[in-house]
Amino acid sequence: MAKCVSRSSASASDGSCSPRDLLGCPRVSNRELRFLARGLTDSLRDVRRVADSRGARLRAAERSPGCVDGREA
Fold first, then answer.
1. What is the pTM of this model?
2. Number of structural domains found in the chain
3. Which has more confidence, 19 or 52?
């Protein structure tokens, strides 16, 4: 496995290497890049799920009676 730029003994699979460090490493393996891509994809999926949920709650609050600008009047 490739060594991270900032931590000589860290690697992607043990979670101690940041994505920036991993991408800056000239000897990163395909396996490590796939691991990084999978982690970033999972993170983006979670962000989208939270944003969709928050948007749905805001829309529901705007439709409720006695609500002004998404807040109770």
1. 0.58
2. 1
3. 52
